[in-house]
Write a structure and sequence with these properties.
mainly alpha; Arc Repressor Mutant, subunit A; 12 helices; 76% helix
Length: 245
C-alpha cells in the first residue's frame, strides 16, 4: 500500500513540473513576440522619415526657380505700374525712359531703322546702353511706319552699296542688317525700283578695282549665293560693259 501511494505521489509531482514548464515558457515567447517589431512598421517609419526629409530639405534648384519666378513677376508688375503711371501722369515717367524714347524716334525717323534694330541699339553697351525696361518703354510708345523704313533702307542698300535684288532682301531681314520682318521686307522689294544690271556693273567695277579677278572668276563671284547673288544675265551684262570702259 505504501508503495502504491509513493508511485502516485511521484506521478503527481511530474505532472506539476510539466504544467509549470509550459506556463513558464509561454510568457517568454509572448514577450519576445511583443519586443520584435514587424517588417511593415519599419518600412512605414522609413517612408515617413524620407517624406520628412523632403519636406524639411527641398531641392535647391526648386528654391532658385521660385525666387526667379517671383523676381520676374515683381519686375513685370513694376514695369506695368510705371506704364500705367505714365498714362495717367506723363511727369511720372523716369528720365531714362523719356531719353530712350527720344533716341528711338531719332533712329526711326532719320535712320529708317527697324523696330528690332532700334531696340538692339538702345540696349547695346557700345551704343546707348539704356536699361531693357527703358528700351522696351521706348519701343512700346514709338510710332513709325515700318514699311516705309524698310523701303528706305532697301533703297540705301541698292543705291549706295550696289547690292543685287537677292542681297538687298537678305540684308533687310538679316539679324545683323536691317532686322525687318518678312512682311516689311516683302513690301520694300515690291515697291523698290532699281536697274539691277547697272548695280551689277557698278559692283563689278568695285571688285575689279580691289581684287585681281579674271572674267570667269568675276562672273562666278557675281552670281554665287555666297557672293553677290546677281543673276547670270546681270553678271554677263556687267562683264561685257566693263570691257568697254
Amino acid at each position: 500500500m505504501r508503495k502504491l501511494l509513493l508511485v502516485i505521489a511521484i506521478m503527481l509531482g511530474l505532472s506539476a513540473c510539466t504544467v509549470n514548464d509550459k506556463n513558464n515558457s509561454k510568457p517568454a515567447d509572448t514577450k519576445q513576440a511583443e519586443e520584435k517589431p514587424s517588417v511593415s512598421n519599419v518600412e512605414g517609419e522609413d517612408e515617413n522619415k524620407e517624406e520628412d526629409k523632403k519636406t524639411k530639405n527641398p531641392e535647391k534648384s526648386s528654391e532658385e526657380l521660385e525666387k526667379e519666378e517671383l523676381k520676374e513677376k515683381s519686375k513685370d508688375a513694376e514695369v506695368k505700374k510705371t506704364e500705367e503711371s505714365a498714362k495717367s501722369n506723363p511727369d511720372d515717367v523716369p528720365d531714362e525712359y523719356k531719353a530712350a524714347l527720344v533716341k528711338a524716334e531719332e533712329y526711326a525717323n532719320s535712320k529708317y531703322m527697324s523696330k528690332m534694330a532700334i531696340y538692339g541699339w538702345l540696349i547695346s553697351k557700345d551704343m546707348d546702353n539704356y536699361s531693357k525696361d527703358a528700351a522696351q518703354y521706348a519701343i512700346d510708345h514709338l510710332e513709325a511706319d515700318w514699311n516705309r523704313n524698310a523701303l528706305e533702307t532697301a533703297k540705301a542698300y541698292a543705291e549706295k552699296l550696289f547690292l543685287s535684288k537677292k542681297s538687298v532682301y537678305r540684308h533687310l531681314t538679316w539679324e545683323f542688317g536691317g532686322y525687318f520682318t518678312k512682311e516689311q521686307a516683302d513690301y520694300a522689294m515690291e515697291h523698290l525700283v532699281v536697274d539691277w544690271k547697272e548695280n551689277a556693273l557698278n559692283r563689278a567695277k568695285e571688285l575689279k578695282l580691289n581684287m585681281e579677278y579674271n572674267d570667269d572668276e568675276l562672273k562666278k563671284w557675281l552670281t554665287d549665293d555666297e557672293g553677290e547673288q546677281f543673276t547670270i544675265e546681270e553678271a554677263e551684262y556687267a562683264i561685257e560693259n566693263l570691257k568697254r570702259e
